[in-house]
Amino acid sequence: MFHIIRPTLGWFNSDIVEAGIRVLLPHLRNNLVLSSFALKSDLKSWQRNTLPETPKNFESILIPINYQHHWTLVVLIMKSNKALYYDSFAATPPPQLKQTIQTLLTSWTMGTFTWTNMIKRAIQTNGDIYSCGLFLLKFIQAVLLEQPINFTSTNMPELRAEFEEKLLSEVPTAEKR
């Protein structure tokens, strides 16, 4: 089997994250997952044509963030004005991220959101520096499917294998065309 997402090859880049998001699209319901390219790497501005005109039709907006080579997730709960922050290292959101998202919310006339760190204790441990992209995708899946966060670095080998299998099953082959 061709191994495209093993830790020995490094962390997930934006292309792998985008492919993972596409695999999760059937579970969106009334939620929106922004492209991993939406927020620029300086956390100060947005890429053109990556944001909806109005978010009011969505229950939540999920924003994958790659800042300083680390993937995290922001979930904006639109009806309750809450911003949930998922970081496998249990860090707090960078101030510039909060400011940029608040500027976006203001442009949408949404008011101020209350921030909550959803991961209270680091779950990416034991020298595991490669799995934050997979943690991001598992966070997205947990939010969309309303599942608990019950995985850690210990689970990453089996979760990588499952994700790789799912991802490769979604790729069209010559026979399927």
What does the secondary structure layout of this molecule look like, with pairings?
Blueprint (H helix, E strand, L loop, with lengths): L13 H11 L6 E3 L26 E8 L2 E8 L4 E5 L8 H13 L6 E4 L14 H13 L11 H15 L7
Parallel strand pairs: 1-2, 4-5
Antiparallel strand pairs: 2-3, 3-4
General description of the model:
It is a single chain. The protein is of the alpha/beta class and 177 residues long. The protein has a single domain (7-168), classed as Adenoviral Proteinase, Chain A (Adenoviral Proteinase, Chain), CATH 3.40.395.10. It contains four helices and five strands; from the N terminus they run H-E-E-E-E-H-E-H-H. A five-stranded mixed β-sheet has the order 1-2-3-4-5, with helices on one face. The two termini are 21 Å apart. The model has no long low-confidence stretch (mean pLDDT 84).
